[in-house]
Amino acid sequence: MSQPFYITTPIYYVNAEPHLGHAYSTIVADVAARFHRLTGDEVRFQTGTDEHGDKIAQAAEARGVTPQQYADQISGLFRHLWPELHITNDKFIRTTDPDHKQVVQSILQKVHDAGDIYFAKYGGHYCVGCERFLTEHEMVDGKCPDHGTVPVYQEEENYFFRMSNYTEQLKAHIEAHPDFIRPERYKNEVLAMLEQGLEDLCISRPKSRLTWGIDLPFDAGYVTYVWFDALINYLSGLGWPGGENMAKFWPGAQHLIAKDILKPHAIFWPTMLMSLARAEGRPAQDYLYKHLNVHGYWNVDQAKMSKSLGNVVRPLELAEIYGVEAFRYFLLRDMAFGLDSSFSEQALVERYNADLANDLGNLFSRVLTLLHKFRGGVVPEPGPEQAEDADLAALGAAVLREYRRENRTFAFHKALASVWSLISAGNKYVVVSEPWALAKDPALAPRLDRVLHDLCQLLARVAVLIWPVMPLTAEQMAGVLGLGRIEPGLLARLEEGQALLDPGSQTHQPPALFPRIDTAKVQAKAAKAGQKAEAKPAPQAAKKDQAPEKAAEEPAEIGIEQFGQVKLKVATVLSAERIPKADKILKLTLDAGEEEPRTVVAGVAQHYDPEELVGKQVVIVANLKPAKLRGITSQGMVLAAVGPDGLCVVSPSKPTPPGSQVR
Ligand code: ME8
User: Fold this and answer.
1) From the CB of 231, is ligand 1 less than 6 Å away?
2) From atom 12 of ligand 1, which residue's Cα is the shortest distance away?
3) pTM value?
């Protein structure tokens, strides 16, 4: 049954540029949103930026700009990154939005009027990194365990939220709803915090110390503590207090965070919501969110990601090299949801080659190549069923059940593993049924029909199931299979046991979904860079070194008309230059006989000095989709032969006018 599903990411501080960790949370939320859309649920997905507080004020001051200017700039980086990673959020909220500020003030006033906020003098250990006072229990050797800094002892008069009053109520709620916080380890952590007892929460900052915040509605001398402000985004983004979105989406609200902000989300936020419910004379259930989903931390090559270590991973750089789809897949598949994981580019490449190039890419190209060779690309009527067909169908049904269950509980890595078990079974089925042998005997035609039919249906099923994680690949597969767009109803059809493809429907020739990447090169580079994350294969090298995959060893036959679709041209190199911090690629400016020179990025920097290439004639693929590599838009690709001593660019054997066609 269709249900409203509301998913939020943390709203990110605007004191740092987006990195791998932010990308991971937002991609996970996107996958959850897409999965629920696929099931037919009505979905709302919110992300945004957290813009008030000490950290932002300090970062702005260090750059000599106002906090608002600074927040505008960094918030823009987040907002613009998400479409590049194919994120489909419905709302991007900023805590400096006027309607958010108003909601924060209304809630503060209500909670204050209900007697849950009081004024008192307080002395405590304040950590700027956490933007909060730490308790004695939380400090390790007098330091903040997360930031490694000694908190500053501060004494001042402030407003306090009576958080401690809600300790027992929160404990009871968690015990009665064991999956309120998941995975379980984090629930246990929270119960342990509650066991130690809660203190009241300081929720104000005097303006003498900080002005960059939302004014307290009941005392103009103070601004709101950043967490009391930020957490409320989850309600203000729905248009609290009333309205259609509140009524529809709040009851199904799920938050997604990493373990670093467990306490604010598992303790501050539910107690704030309980207090708000009390102030409005409603049961706490009306306001408590449904689930808090907590993931672990990405480290980089076993170390914590930090600016000072210089190992901050920038999501776009990886997505440019390996493609957004592979990047999304790797993040979702490699991290067991809830546990920490160590990022390395080598791991990404290995997974790419094993799961995407070998398993998925190979199955897709094998099946379609066979279908085109033996049945003209037409999905056959299924012949009689044999035991191995029934086994494959049973596995398909089991995978669907597992897929729904694991995705619903945020165990995306398990859902993907399950889909890949089906892909592996598909590859084995090809080997066992030997379609090429069946094709030799006309008497076995019904058997060949059955095998090809079932394999096509399996590919269609896989296309639907990978859609939340790799939407473009899924759509591409669906297009080739003649399935059309992937829509919510398709998952339900699969679950009802319906076939997705009609016998007699025409498929298209398969493209190479995931050309193989040369691991040896990446390993050598990683070793050279001392296992640092900056070792990256050149983008073009990744594409051209695709050979060892089975399908690539024996490329399918193509017709002359297909070859004719590749526009090859002669071009003369006008200039060639190295690109800072990219030791494999050169930026070439080419005269291809067109009005304007073209820019093409070529992966030949280790085989040619830039000077050697100037004046040389090359052959380019002129109608290749432009691609951005290291921030440069490459308008084509230079052909090169892969010789034993490295790359050797292809040239016409005598001078030829630029722009001449190559056939
Ligand atoms: O805490 N691995 O913002 P923030 C995985 N503004 N995820 C990571 C990560 C890593 N190494 N580093 C960051 C704040 N994240 C507050 C939130 S919400 C009302 C206010 C992700 O910019 C992860 O989601 O420090 C983590 O919880 C979040 O970024 C922290 O983002």
Assistant:
1) yes
2) 21
3) 0.79
